[in-house]
Design the sequence.
């Protein structure tokens, strides 16, 4: 018995198992709650690392749950792209979880803490499940686990949260439920056309089904795209996102911005490349439409971000813009563009994670998060704000930080695809990013704090360490981009670009 | 042509239900009605799946000794819909819990009034 | 709560039968239509009936919050059952391949681990249904 051959399923089971232990622990052994949560996710991350080496060494892993052979049983299929996403999800998720162990003491209502950790673990389990599964319906189940957990995480702060938290959560749920229904209908159409739900099998049978039932296949694709555009907050379906982020506790915003919407974008990539086939998608004309939508998302998200005063809302609209980069890169039909899009997933998870967690640390200390309240913060919380500034600069795309590398690849991609309009969009958006991020940096480092503002010092260690690790990650991934690129380039070539 | 359309009345019913649900969700201001609309929409998808897998004269897909030659309905859509029902129940329960909280905070179930009340300072 | 002798007596008489029926659905999930979720929902409904008729406190006495917390975490058992497969050297949640006797189709003890999994799900769903109702009802009162 080699345990490592079971990692594809255990990576999902570990956080799931720990999530159900949380309420029990809280009731009888309160001190164990947080250590168990962190241990479970650490195990998941180590398994993801191990799987990355396994996949790099001997190719994709296929795991049959319950020893049922695919296409009848549920297959868990870990290829280069899955393992890359699994690493991002578990790695960034782990850091955010460590941060929350301290954050939750002060910012979450006491009675909700066990549920808070249970939901975070469920969210990460759901996202990991979506990434590794090879079965379309299984994907839906994990999608729902992740979505329900994230709806419930928005108002989790209880009496310590903001006033509009329930309304934000309700709107998120409302949009999310429509998206889920759309996804379910799409799965129904796909099953009707092919009679299978296994992704690999589906891809094979869709080739015939395209001829036999063209309408069904098109409907399925359309419903999928609308559903997951809603879930990944692709413009113009992003309306739920800023409110949900503004009212959620900081680690939750970091999780949804850094991981949830990225995994939803991953599903779009998976659908286009592994299931429907990118040639078919582009022949329907959908691809060029999505390119334009993504370009609009990039520009309009940035414009909205400039107009905001609340720092979390700036970051939220910036997420709307960044998801556009990922989608644009994935739909450019050029290998460089795709590489850039995938690298942007990692890049944006790290950056947005750093920035939202840093803002959370400021809120932890001062309880405020207006742009005015950040005046002079750089002198009071030098490490937190240092990490924030690195992340912000990286967002703008200053070399040698990671944002530069992913934008470079995206630019090469647009040139390769001869879509010069998009080249311009990416350059213009970098300029817009600079407008609002440099304004933030200006406030933080070069302005004197207001008279009578709260005097604060550095954030507690448990919160500071994840922020600093993520901030340094920005430099590290930028300087040594070849490490993630080994995985990404394999993923790109295995998906046929 | 018309016969073909009418013979697929189950799908037509599902589509009608779907749009009733979607319309209710979008047009009603009352949060409870929105949730009911969501449930109608979910139900339409259940109907779509179940009728897709059904076979005329089909039996419940459970193998008992000596019954190998019976026609079964397709069990897969049923299994999927069971899961989808669980999901719908959870979503509804959570939405109702939120509605209770919203009513406690604002004293109304009208989505527009809640927004107005929220935007008032203090 | 108003005193209503007919409703109370009917509920008291019906509850054992409803719960027995729920258990039947759970235990025969692999033989007849039904299973853990359906049976669990029936049992949960019986507890909701008790709460509606006798009031929340009385219902809470029959099944405390602690107990339902434990039962809701029964999913842990599901995962542990899944580990049997790994321990036997085959895959997660494997049943027949893990050497568990499959029995004769139609017998109560057949179908490998499906019965055990159904029981776990039944408890989970019953306690979740109960908790959902009680939590919502309490929110409304408080």
Sequence:
């Amino acid at each position: 018995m080699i345990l490592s051959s079971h990692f594809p399923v255990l990576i999902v089971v570990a956080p799931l198992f720990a999530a159900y232990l949380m309420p029990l622990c809280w009731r009888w052994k309160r001190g164990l709650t947080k250590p168990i949560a962190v241990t479970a996710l650490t195990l998941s991350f180590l398994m993801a690392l191990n799987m990355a080496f396994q996949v790099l060494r001997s190719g994709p892993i296929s795991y049959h749950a319950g020893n049922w052979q695919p296409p009848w049983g549920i297959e868990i299929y870990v290829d280069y792209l899955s393992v890359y996403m699994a690493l991002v999800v578990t790695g960034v998720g782990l850091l955010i979880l460590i941060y929350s162990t301290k954050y939750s003491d002060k910012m979450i209502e006491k009675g909700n803490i066990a549920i808070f950790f249970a939901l975070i673990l469920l969210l990460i389990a759901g996202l990991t499940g979506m990434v590794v599964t090879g079965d379309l319906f299984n994907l839906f189940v994990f999608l729902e686990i992740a979505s329900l957990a994230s709806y419930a995480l928005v108002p989790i702060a209880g009496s310590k949260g903001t006033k509009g938290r329930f309304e934000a959560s309700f709107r998120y749920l409302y949009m999310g439920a429509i998206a889920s229904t759309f996804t379910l209908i799409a799965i129904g159409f796909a099953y009707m056309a092919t009679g299978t739900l296994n992704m690999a099998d589906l891809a094979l049978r869709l080739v015939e089904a395209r001829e036999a039932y063209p309408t069904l296949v098109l409907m399925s694709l359309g419903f999928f795209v609308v559903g997951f555009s809603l879930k990944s907050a692709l413009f113009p379906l992003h309306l739920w996102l800023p409110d949900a982020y503004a009212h959620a506790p900081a680690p939750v915003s970091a999780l949804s911005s850094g991981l949830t919407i990225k995994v939803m974008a991953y599903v779009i990539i998976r659908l286009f490349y592994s299931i429907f086939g990118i040639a078919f998608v582009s022949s329907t004309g959908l691809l060029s439409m999505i390119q334009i939508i993504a370009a609009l998302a990039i520009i309009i998200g940035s414009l909205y971000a400039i107009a905001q005063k609340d720092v979390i809302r700036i970051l939220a609209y910036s997420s709307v813009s960044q998801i556009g980069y990922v989608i644009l890169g994935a739909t450019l039909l050029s290998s460089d563009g795709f590489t850039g899009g995938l690298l942007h997933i990692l890049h944006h998870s790290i950056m947005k994670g750093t920035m939202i967690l840093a803002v959370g640390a400021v809120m932890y200390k001062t309880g405020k998060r207006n742009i005015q309240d950040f005046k002079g913060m750089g002198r009071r919380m030098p490490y937190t704000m240092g990490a924030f500034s690195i992340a912000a600069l990286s967002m703008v795309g200053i070399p040698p930080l990671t944002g530069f590398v992913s934008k470079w690849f995206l630019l090469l991609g647009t040139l390769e695809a001869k879509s010069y309009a998009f080249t311009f969009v990416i350059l213009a958006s970098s300029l817009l990013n600079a407008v609002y991020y440099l304004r933030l940096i200006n406030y933080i480092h070069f302005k004197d704090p207001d008279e009578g503002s709260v005097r604060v010092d550095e954030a507690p260690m448990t919160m500071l360490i994840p922020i600093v690790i993520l901030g340094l990650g920005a430099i590290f991934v930028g300087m040594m981009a070849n490490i993630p690129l080994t995985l990404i380039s394999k993923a790109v070539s295995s998906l046929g670009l | 042509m018309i016969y073909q359309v009418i013979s697929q009345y189950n799908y037509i019913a599902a589509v009608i239900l779907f749009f009733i649900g979607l319309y209710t969700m979008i047009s009603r201001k009352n949060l409870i009605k929105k949730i009911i609309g969501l449930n109608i929409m979910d139900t339409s998808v259940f109907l779509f799946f179940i009728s897709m897998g059904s076979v005329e004269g089909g039996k419940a897909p459970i193998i008992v000794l000596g019954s190998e030659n019976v026609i079964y309905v397709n069990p897969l859509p049923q299994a999927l819909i069971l899961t989808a029902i669980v999901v719908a129940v959870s979503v509804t329960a959570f939405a109702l819990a939120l509605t209770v909280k919203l009513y406690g905070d604002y004293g109304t179930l009208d989505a527009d009034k809640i927004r107005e009340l929220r935007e008032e300072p203090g | 709560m108003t005193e209503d002798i007919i409703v109370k007596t009917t509920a008291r008489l019906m509850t054992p039968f409803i719960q027995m029926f729920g258990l039947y659905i759970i235990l025969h999930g692999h033989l007849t239509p039904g299973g853990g979720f359906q049976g669990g929902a029936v049992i949960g409904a019986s507890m909701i009936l008790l709460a509606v008729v006798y009031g929340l406190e009385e219902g809470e006495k029959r099944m405390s919050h602690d107990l339902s917390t434990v039962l809701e975490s029964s999913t842990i058992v599901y995962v542990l059952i899944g580990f049997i497969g790994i321990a036997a050297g085959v895959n997660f949640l494997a049943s027949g391949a893990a050497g568990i006797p499959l029995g004769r189709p139609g017998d109560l003890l057949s179908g490998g681990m499906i019965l055990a999994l159904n029981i776990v799900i039944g408890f989970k769903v019953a306690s979740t249904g109960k908790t959902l109702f009680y939590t919502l009802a309490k929110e409304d009162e408080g």
